[in-house]
Write a structure and sequence with these properties.
The complex is a heterodimer of chains A (477) and B (417). Chain A is α+β, with helices and mostly antiparallel strands. Chain A has helices spanning 11-20, 59-78, 94-109, 122-128, 150-163, 206-211, 280-290, 338-353, 381-390, 406-414, 422-429, 442-453; strands at residues 2-7, 27-30, 47-48, 82-83, 87-91, 118-121, 138-142, 146-148, 167-169, 174-179, 184-188, 192-200, 220-230, 240-243, 253-256, 262-265, 269-270, 302-313, 319-322, 328-332, 397-399, 404-405, 472-473. Chain A is globular, with a radius of gyration of 23 Å. The longest helix of chain B has 19 residues, at 302-320. In chain B, a hairpin with a 2-residue loop joins β26 and β27. Chain B is α/β, with parallel strands linked by helices and 417 residues long. Chain B has 3 domains: 1-120 and 255-327, FAD/NAD(P)-binding domain, CATH 3.50.50; 122-253, FAD/NAD(P)-binding domain; 328-417, Sandwich (Immunoglobulin-like), CATH 2.60.40. The radius of gyration of chain B is 22 Å and the shape is globular. The chains are: A alpha+beta (477), B alpha/beta (417). Chains A and B meet through α7, β18, α9, α12 and β23 of A and β8, α3, α4 and β11 of B. Bound molecules: flavin-adenine dinucleotide (2 copies). The site of one flavin-adenine dinucleotide has 40 residues of chain A, from α1, β18 and α8.
Chain lengths: 477, 417
């Protein structure tokens, strides 16, 4: 019997799991995919928003500001990338300038400090951002905006939670939930789990999961966002460039990423089930709209495109509450700024809702720290050779483009919440994330996975279930 | 820090030929660094025939061609390191590499030859809309899985792009029992050699769809199908869609010289070749750093790689011996109408013995045309060409005196007969 069962391993479930691991409770995360955080948390802008944008008084506004304030400590404790690059909302017309003034006032209303909001003239913007479009007339500067690496943020939270006793079950899709007198029975396709408290953090699936057991008066609609990715050697902007928002949303941004790439996007389109594929229409929309704010875009440096879907709630605000069924908690409709808000949401869910259901006793052994996988190319020569002496595989470079060694790949596989697929390796240590996109190292990574996981090479997956790379042996074998 | 006269980065056909030539020219303190577990480079996975017609006057497989050079290297006692990745070269000609026998090592060279080969353009660079499921691979990666590791990546395969690797894989996979449904090429002509179209597609009844491209990838987690559409000037033509069920899509959409470490060292690249800009001696803008083979510009014939690399090796040896003149006047070799690029990009007659070979590619398919070569705008000579295609590298030989006759530039262009 678990005290708490969390459905979903996105950033919301991940932060809740770590928050739970501060207490002596038996907690498990149930995830339907074969790796954690493969939905909204994998495919977004990665921005830790300042909190200037949500409508005052909403949960979005409240948890955005709180979350933004928590990120620095979380990133230090968990060794999560955080690039404090700031953000600029830029206006190109008189009308947009008016909206900027409104946002300026709203930022204070939402609780930003004086030092966290500033209006800039055209010249000031140009000086900060040489590639800004000449159409830009004014900007709102938001220095507390930063950029993280969302997948690592989720992995780090779960890994740390697991180091502190939380369990994780992947490849487990929840298909029904029933409540017996005292506890819940959560059924997956393969197993039954029993828990006193169930937390629904299942992203775009949250409406369906909620309906399995509780009265549900909200709907969740996937709203897709598509992106282009520019190569690492392009420095287009120094900070996050937001257009002035309109009723359609935050608009198409230019966002520098922690690993050096630049994102162009997202779009915003309600979709039925086609939630992760890019479309010609969407990608064209980006090209047309991006030029309004930024120029000199090197389209020949596009290295890929991707899409993710926001779990947009009918209520227009986060839904964070215990349902009519005691102990069943919905954390639903966590669209933007959900990545930013997650640590604050998690604390509130645990201290404000879970605590009313079970007794939370402090876990005295809780260790808040987690170190990221060693990155050889960030170390000095001495440190490199030090590691090499410990394990010679730290000098066997597998991925040429990103200089990733066999040692790093093995570590990414064997840690808690470790990689089990080629994409899992790439997402954790960037082997195959460079120019050649794994052209050279994928066969090597595949061999390492097979050896370390003790499986046949033909069983090694590219990413999702059923995505084996090798289909048959050759006739000669 | 260990010292070497010449350090060669990459032990493919370019690196091997260059090393042997350095040695032949009397410079013996050489090191070849190769990241793979064997010398030979891309040749090792090209188990088909067709190598060495010019250099050895016989048809060899890739591994056989490589073996001849590897044997010569061993006979000459030239030092090489395997499983060793070069991570950095510096302007002072120090070279950094790593392997699990020695750790992270720095060495000092007098001259460096970059022969790191090329990598394949991939799915990202062509951004086909749709999901990013498994089963979309570059043809070269699929070739490595097949010829080195012994596995097929698909049983129902479509190939996008008519580059040589794709064509060769079409035949190879067919022979291994896979069904190759077709090859689509966005251009109105093939990106591969004519002989490969005949021997790899036509002989096996595999259709080649010219002026067609893949406009959609179907399948969420793994590829299930593709949509192929006719294009007019790169724009998909409505109502020409064909849908195919596939379990793998191989991309053979071009090769790009691998210059990660050269760029980081400040070596200037040419926008067309994507390889270093070099002079007649195959020296880059950094004195004492040379480049040849696929790292310099993409080759389709290994014989050209070998001749080019021998030249580069000879010049690097001369540089070490102090016989190479860097501070001399150079004229530019300029690609004009119909020519995509010329390598080298500049030349000084002082470092040319009798003649110099210029390698180039044309921008389009041409029939019955002439190469017109001009010195400072004044016509020098014409060479008749029956057939030209971007897929086939062309060679023009100039004499020392022809170079001396120009003050500023020599241009080459294509003119209809
Ligand atoms: C295009 C885009 C851009 C964005 N940009 C930003 C930004 O810049 N800044 C920001 O703060 N926020 C941003 N967001 C919002 C942010 O990404 C999300 O709020 C956040 O990732 C939501 O996390 P989550 O854990 O709630 O959901 P998800 O990450 O979607 O996780 C839900 C998990 O539940 C699992 N699951 C679903 N059903 C089941 C089941 N039946 N059984 C078991 N498991 C199940 C899923 O597989 C998934 O792993 C953006 C979102 C999008 C789509
Ligand atoms: C698939 C394919 C089929 C071909 N078919 C034919 C044919 O039928 N007939 C024909 O004549 N020609 C053919 N060619 C052309 C010709 O064989 C090649 O152009 C030639 O072999 C390239 O040699 P190279 O040494 O420049 O590059 P490569 O052979 O690629 O060698 C580069 C070497 O450098 C190493 N390296 C790279 N980076 C580093 C680093 N940082 N540190 C250490 N080592 C490094 C690589 O591991 C590799 O071994 C074919 C080419 C290809 C790609």
């Amino acid at each position: 019997m678990y005290d708490v069962l969390i459905i979903g391993s996105g950033i919301t479930g991940a932060c809740i799991s770590r928050e739970m691991s501060k207490y002596q409770a038996k907690t498990i995360i149930i995830e339907k995919e074969n790796d954690v955080a493969q939905k909204a948390t994998l495919a977004n802008s990665a921005i830790v928003h300042s909190g200037h944008d949500p409508i005052p008084g909403t949960l979005k506004a409240k948890f955005n500001i709180l979350g933004n304030r928590m990120y620095k400590q979380m990133s230090e404790e968990l060794d999560i990338p955080l690039m404090e690059c700031g953000g600029l909302v830029v206006a190109t017309t008189l009308e947009e300038e008016k909206t900027l003034d409104m946002l300026y006032a709203r930022a204070f209303e939402n609780g930003l400090k004086k030092s966290e909001v500033k209006l800039l003239t055209k010249d000031e913007v140009k000086e900060k951002e040489p590639n800004i479009s000449d159409h830009v007339t004014k900007a709102l500067s938001l220095p507390s905006t930063s950029v993280t690496y969302p997948l690592e943020a989720a992995i780090a939270n779960i890994e740390n939670a697991m180091n502190n006793g939380v369990e994780l079950a992947t490849n487990e899709e929840v298909i029904s939930i029933v409540k017996n007198k005292e506890h819940f029975e959560v059924f997956t396709k393969r197993n039954k789990y029993e828990a006193k408290v169930v937390i629904n953090a299942s992203g775009i699936n949250a409406e369906n999961i909620s309906k399995m057991i509780a009265k549900t008066n909200f709907t969740i609609s996937p709203r897709k966002g598509e992106y282009y990715v520019l190569d690492k050697d392009v420095t287009l902007v120094n900070s996050v460039i937001y257009p002035t928002p309109s009723e359609k949303g935050k608009g198409v941004l230019v966002t520098p990423q922690y690993h050096g790439n630049t994102l162009l996007g997202p779009t915003s389109e309600f979709v039925e089930n086609d939630t992760e594929s890019t479309t010609k229409k969407g990608l064209d929309y980006i090209k047309v709209n991006i030029e309004k704010t930024v120029t000199n875009i090197p389209y020949n440096k596009i290295i890929r495109s991707f899409a993710g879907s926001r779990p947009t709630p009918s209520t227009k605000d986060f839904i964070i509450e215990e349902s009519n069924i005691k102990g069943f908690i919905n954390v639903a409709g966590i669209e933007s700024p959900g990545l930013t808000a997650a640590p604050a949401i998690a604390r509130y869910v645990v201290e404000g809702i879970v605590a009313n259901n079970i007794d939370l006793v402090e876990n005295k052994n809780f260790n808040p720290y987690r170190k990221k996988v060693i990155r050889m190319n960030e170390l000095s020569d001495e440190e490199k050779n030090e590691l090499y002496k410990r394990d010679s595989r730290f000098a066997n470079i597998i991925c040429r483009c990103e200089s990733i060694t066999e040692g790093e790949i093995i570590e990414a596989i064997h840690r808690n919440c470790g990689a089990t697929t080629v994409t899992g390796v790439k997402n954790r240590v960037r082997a195959g994330a460079g120019r050649c996109q794994g052209g050279f190292c994928q066969p090597e990574v595949l061999k390492i996975l097979a050896r370390e996981l003790k499986i046949d090479p033909m069983e090694v997956l590219y990413s999702k279930k059923d995505s084996a790379i090798l289909k048959a042996k050759t006739k000669g074998e | 820090m260990k010292n070497y006269d010449v350090v060669i980065i990459g032990g493919g056909s370019a690196g091997l030929a260059a090393a042997l030539e350095v040695n032949k020219n009397g410079v013996k303190n050489i090191l070849v660094i190769e990241r793979d577990q064997e010398l030979g480079g891309i040749l090792l996975q090209c188990i088909h025939n067709g190598f060495g017609l010019k250099v050895f006057k016989e048809e060899l497989t890739g591994p056989e061609y490589a073996e001849r050079f590897v044997n010569m290297l061993k006979e000459e006692g030239i030092e090489f390191k395997l499983n060793s990745m070069v991570t950095k070269i510096n302007k002072d000609k120090t070279v950094e590499y790593a392997n699990s026998d020695e750790g992270f090592i720095q060495i000092q060279a007098k001259a460096i030859i970059i022969t790191t080969g090329c990598y394949e353009r991939n799915a990202g660079a062509i951004s086909i809309p749709g999901n990013r499921p498994s089963g979309v691979l570059t043809a070269g990666t699929a070739q490595k899985y097949l010829n080195i590791d012994g596995y097929l990546v698909g049983k129902k395969v479509f190939i996008l792009g008519s580059g040589d690797i794709g064509l060769i894989m079409a035949r190879r996979m067919t022979l291994e029992g896979a069904e190759v449904i077709g090859v689509a090429e966005i251009l109105p002509f093939s990106g591969g050699l004519q002989r490969n179209i005949v021997q790899c597609l036509e002989d096996y009844n595999i259709p080649l769809y010219l002026s067609h491209t893949v406009t959609e990838i179907i399948g969420k987690d793994k590829i299930e199908g593709i949509k192929v559409q006719k294009v007019d000037n790169f724009v998909p033509v409505p109502n020409t869609e064909m849908e195919f069920e596939v379990d793998a899509l191989l991309l053979s959409v071009g090769l790009i010289p691998e210059n990660g470490i050269s760029e980081a060292a400040g070596i200037e690249l040419h926008p067309r070749t994507k390889g270093p800009i070099v002079n007649e001696s195959y020296q880059t803008n950094i004195e004492g750093v040379f480049a040849c083979g696929n790292a310099l510009h993409v080759h389709d014939l290994v014989d050209f790689v070998t001749t080019e690399s021998r030249k580069a090796g000879e010049k690097a040896a001369k540089y070490v011996k102090g016989e190479y003149k860097d501070n001399v006047e150079r004229i530019n070799l300029v690609a004009k109408n119909g020519i995509s690029y010329i390598v080298p990009q500049m030349v000084s007659s002082e470092n040319v013995d009798k003649t110099i070979e210029l390698f180039m590619r044309v921008t389009d398919v041409y029939k019955n045309v002439e190469f017109v070569i001009k010195q400072d705008g004044k016509e020098l000579k014409r060479i008749k060409k029956k057939h030209l295609a971007p897929a086939e590298m062309e060679k023009v030989i100039l004499t020392k005196s022809q170079i001396e006759g120009a003050n500023k530039e020599i241009t080459i262009e294509v003119e209809a007969l």
